[in-house]
Every structure is written in structure tokens, then in C-alpha cells.
Amino acid sequence: MFKNLIEMKKSFLWLLATAPLAVCAQTKPYTLTGELKNIKEAPSKVFLWYAVDGKPVTDSATVTAGKYAFKGDAAQPVNATLILGAGNPRTAEAKNTATVFLEAGALKAISIDSFSNITVKGGAANTAYDQLKKEQKPVSDQMQALMGEYRAAYEAKNEEKLKTIEARYDSLDELSKAGYESFLKKNPTTPIALYVIRNWMPYDIDVEKLDPIFNKLPEATKSSASGKALQAKLEVAKKTSIGKEAPDFTMNDTLGNPVKLSSLRGKYVLLDFWASWCGPCRRENPNVVKAFNEYKDKGFTVLGVSLDQPTGKEKWLKAIHDDGLTWTHLSDLQFWNNAAAKEYGVQAIPQNFLIDPQGKIAGKNLRGEDLEKKLAELIKG
């Protein structure tokens, strides 16, 4: 689980860098000057990543005598990622990345000892982000330390230690999410609200918690491109929340035959979104196999939906065979544009929905022992 979280966090940095942001004709100029202090062997370049309408934008600046500068235009605060010495946030080390909000006016960034230890002065968004970091620091420091412990235990193949670290990390992750929720409740009109929400609920939206907070956001925030994108995701989450009827769809199986989700009515169905290229999915597959074998004769089945790419059919079929996945599998081989994934608001995998015999959603994201516990609770005898 912890290794999965590390992978997901690295992917999430990329998602934040490329998330849709507001665009407005009335932009104003900004300047961002940066200074590096006590950073040994600092590279000669700093890269800047952000997005406009979901399309990534990158810029670079040369470091001269420990200083660098960027300039541009922004209509309202734009969440961006600074990377020291590397142009890709996916591959950069955490110590070499930093978050900044590009907003009108003069911004000054100072990094001390490490690039990520950055303070940005200027603008309401950067002031709010600085406050958020201070509130989250006790938890984030512990999480960062645990990552180091986890790597050491993983290399030593100490399974007991790994399990202990995973449990501690999960507890800290819940504290971190509670901190984001508390920040939003205290600051409903904060200019970094959408950034906080993406950190609080990066993949799976809790409608009951998010809906009242979203409704309190300023109209300008809700009507921005990012706000509208979040609202669309919220509406999908409402349609796929527990107790709602599962949206029906038809998709081809491995032989090209169309299969309709509703054709499985009368059974408990685990609608399982995965892909052959997804490491966390492949590591979760043995748990799904175990649950399937335990309950397949008691009114339970699995319907796999793969987010493999257009050229990935052979890899998809091989993964099914290698992992012993003996249930029905569907895919349109459209990667993240998979029609069923979009219908269910899937933004990360593995993700699943447990559907009851009447076609209503009875559970979500049930992994490991949680899936078997839920099935034991629902399926009598």
C-alpha cells in the first residue's frame, strides 16, 4: 500500500502540473525572482511547469550567482511547479521540486539548504499556501521521514517492518487529509481552494464532505475553468456514490463480443478498473483473485475493465493470463479515454465499485482484506 502511495504521489505531482487552470483575457504581468542559499552543487537551470486548459506549459531560467528569474502573465493565481536542474516533474527528486503560485505582481522565492525548502513572498495565494504548509508541516515531516524508512526496509526485504511503516503512513495520510479539510473550512474563500481540494481528494471524491465546501467557494472560483472541471467531477461522483444505481455501459470483451454491465444483474459484481501497465493494479490482483475464488459460487463475480492503450492488447491479454484473472474482461483500448472509466469518474487505478444484485453501488475502492470483509458482510451463507 505504501509503495503504491509513493508511486501515486509522484504521478500526482504530474497531475497537479497539468491540471486545467483558469484562463481569462484580462491577464496581468508577474515576475518571479528566485535565490538559492547554501545549496551545494546547484544545477545551472531551473524549470517552471504549469498548465493552461489542461495543456502543459514549460519555461526555464539560467541560474547565475545563485539567482534566477521568470516573467509572464496570469489572470488569477496559477499553481505551478519549479524543478531544479530537471525538466520533468515525474522524474525529479522531491528535494528538487517546489510549489509556487504565479499571480500578478512581484514574487520572490528563496530556497535554503534544499530547493524544496522554499519561501515565496508576494500575492495572496502564496501567503495562503505558506500558511497551509505551516499547518501541515508536523505531519508532512513525519511522512517524509517514513518514506526514507520504507526505502531502507524495502531494500532489506523486511516484511514486518514494511507492514508497520505502512500502517503508520496510512494514519498520517488521514491526518493530512483532515488538515486540508480543516483549512478549507476555516478559509472558504482562500485563493488556493482548488489546489487544496486536489490534494485533499486527488482521486476519489467524497461527495458528502466536498459538496458543502464547494458550494461556499467564491463564484469567480467556481466559474473558472478549474472550478467547472471540479464541478463536473463532483457531479459524476454524485452519480457513482454508494446507494446510487450503477451507470450501465456496453463494452467489448477480449474476443470482441459486446458485454453489458446490467447483464450481470442478480449477482454482486466487482467492477474493477485496472491496466497491464499499472504496477499497483498488478500487485492488487492476487487479492481480487482470492476473493473471487472464495465467493464465485455464492453469487459474486468480477468484471474487469482495462485502461490499456490502443497498441496494448497483447500486453492486456498476457497480464490476464499471467495473473490468473479468470473472469470477464472488457476494454476499448483507449487508455484514460476509456468510456466506462470516464462514466465512473476514474482518475487513478486501481479503482473498483462493488455493485449489488439490484444494480446499486454497495461499496467503493475495496482493496486487500477490505474486499473479503465486505463480501462476508453482504453475502450470507
Automatic annotation (TrEMBL):
<dbReference type="GO" id="GO:0016491">
    <property type="term" value="F:oxidoreductase activity"/>
</dbReference>
<protein>
    <submittedName>
        <fullName>Peroxiredoxin</fullName>
    </submittedName>
</protein>
<dbReference type="InterPro" id="IPR050553">
    <property type="entry name" value="Thioredoxin_ResA/DsbE_sf"/>
</dbReference>
<keyword id="KW-0732">Signal</keyword>
<dbReference type="InterPro" id="IPR036249">
    <property type="entry name" value="Thioredoxin-like_sf"/>
</dbReference>
<feature type="domain" description="Thioredoxin">
    <location>
        <begin position="240"/>
        <end position="381"/>
    </location>
</feature>
<dbReference type="InterPro" id="IPR017937">
    <property type="entry name" value="Thioredoxin_CS"/>
</dbReference>
<dbReference type="Pfam" id="PF00578">
    <property type="entry name" value="AhpC-TSA"/>
</dbReference>
<dbReference type="GO" id="GO:0030313">
    <property type="term" value="C:cell envelope"/>
</dbReference>
<dbReference type="InterPro" id="IPR013766">
    <property type="entry name" value="Thioredoxin_domain"/>
</dbReference>
<keyword id="KW-1015">Disulfide bond</keyword>
<dbReference type="InterPro" id="IPR000866">
    <property type="entry name" value="AhpC/TSA"/>
</dbReference>
<dbReference type="GO" id="GO:0017004">
    <property type="term" value="P:cytochrome complex assembly"/>
</dbReference>
<dbReference type="InterPro" id="IPR025380">
    <property type="entry name" value="DUF4369"/>
</dbReference>
<keyword id="KW-0201">Cytochrome c-type biogenesis</keyword>
<dbReference type="Pfam" id="PF14289">
    <property type="entry name" value="DUF4369"/>
</dbReference>
<feature type="signal peptide">
    <location>
        <begin position="1"/>
        <end position="25"/>
    </location>
</feature>
<keyword id="KW-0676">Redox-active center</keyword>
<dbReference type="GO" id="GO:0016209">
    <property type="term" value="F:antioxidant activity"/>
</dbReference>
